[in-house]
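User: Hey, quick favor. My workstation is busy. Could you predict this chain's structure for me?
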Amino acid sequence: MNLATFLFIISGVLLNAVAQLLLKAGANAIGEIHLTMQNWFAVGIKAATQLPIIGGLTCYVLSVVVWIIALSRVDVSLAYPMLSLGYVVAAFGAWYFLGEALSMQRLLAIVVILVGVALLART
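Assistant: No problem, here it is.
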């Protein structure tokens, strides 16, 4: 895998993780959502007008474009597992920006993911 392909893969992963964090920030701003037949439209409008949600959806669209470029250059069996790096980025981003907990069990899981990605990248 050359540097350009690697950068497309990492860019797709990062955009996807940022999208998750932005969507969560938007969901936090809305509060817990309980959809009913009476409120689904109002809840949809409220969600659609949250800047973090708009930003998150934009990041998703960009990540798909970048991901398609990456997939055109490398086997899906190599690229797809790299998406697991998004779990690592999202976990640390949620801890840093959203105040979510990072327990020892979550940190151990992150180490396992990183070892798996490192082994995969060497193939």
